[in-house]
Amino acid sequence: MKKIPIGIEDFKMLISDDYFYIDKTKFIEEIMNDGALVKLFTRPRRFGKTLNMSMLKYFFDIRKAEENGKLFDSLYIKKSPVFVEQGKYPVIFISLKGLIGDTLEKLIDSLKIKISKLFAEYRDLIEKLDKFDTALFEKMILREDISEAELSEALLTLTDILCRYYKKQVIVLIDEYDAPLTYAYGHGYYKEAVEFFKTLYSNVLKTNSNLKMGVLTGAIRVAQAGIFSDLNNIETHTILDEAYDEYFGLLENEVENALIEYKAEDKLEDVKSWYDGYKFGNMEVYNPWSILKYVKYKKLDAYWINTSGNALIKELLLLSDGTVFKDLDDLVKGQEKIIYVNENIALGNNLDPNRLWELMLFSGYLTVKEKMNNEAYLVKIPNKEIQSFFKGLFAEIVFKEKSNITSMKAALESKDINTIVRILEKVVLNAMSFYDTSKKLENPYQTLLAGFFYALDAYYEMKPNSETGYGRADIVLIPRNRKWSGYIFELKRAKTQNLEKEASKALEQIEEKKYDTLLINEGIKDIIKIGLVFDGKKAVAYY
Which of 237, 260, 280 is the last residue of a domain? Predict the structure, then answer.
């Protein structure tokens, strides 16, 4: 049984060390047959972008061409007519993942280290270069007084030197081109970063006679009108495009093969519900990171969502209002939403919160169910893994503290009504900025508390406004463990100064309309009924 390649992004290591690999080398053939000089591929993180870029590097690189060619002996590309291109070009491969710095200056210092290592890969050429090129090489490797202008021309400089030495045009591969930009956005210097990287990319990719082909990957399309405005030769392929739709992520037959390899073929339906659901172009796609984790641990869990990379989504959600959270709540419950994607503007120059749904789509938190027209798409949450993430977000962002969820679980289990009411008061206070509770109805509280209880989905199935008995109960909690108590909440906004009397009437409504019918039919023997009245930040309960 082959080793499982979790976290292996180097193609040579993966093949040489006999890791499990699903053949995606037809991607090389399509790249070569594509006439676009510069290509940008955007896919969610951990969907195989870096591995594909590493594959391109080992295929085209003129150095160690014969040795690298053997990596492809048993793969599709070996029998393709384009295999004659193997080992024919100098290749520059740089990943901008991991660039950090709380200011642009510190980010640029981080980039200098990467550029230094990139030039150092070719240090064996130094003795063969003229004194001018040698001086440039040494300056870049040693990072001696490199100006911002010189750094922005570093990749262009390297293509020029390699092209003259090898007498071949150069292939430039830039992985995670957008990583420093989203990092800069989170640290307040996004505009300045865009200007710098716009110059860096334009220098090497625009009107560069030394360029054979440029390939970039990223998670999102950061404003074509901004960073790529100087490039009229770039062809962008997003998750909405049919071209190249099968080369990032795993197709169903590929997942079936993986499950067979690791003796889990009988779990396809469970795996499908947790990690499938993505639609790239016309292809149904599984999350490869989660599939690999699953075949290793044989446990359905939120693997992809628990990796790094959720910060931008969380930040934009923090800037959002109650309408966004109501829409998100509906999506978590399995509903769909129409969003508008403006292909010409991409994601907006400032990653404005208004572009939140579009960002979620391109980042892998939503997926397309149906294309309505050239701009409108019907979207949904793709699978249970993403659903679990958003359920937790209600607690983390709207309700401020995950500890409230833990405390509520314990209080529900132990039937500690006083603690339940105290936590709900705290939840209402924390969430006031997200939900409009000024309307003279109890429904805003129902929406708010339903979102809170959704975070307890692993323990209780929450039924809001559910038909039961002779009416609709505001919130019913059905315990996953049938030995636990079930709960019915009837929520009221205070109309008088006598909150106790109103709470008593809410409890009477539960009894009179037999709201416990649903729980009784579910086999729940211990049922706790709570009438809850809110007056601003205060709550009074009868039970």
Answer: 237
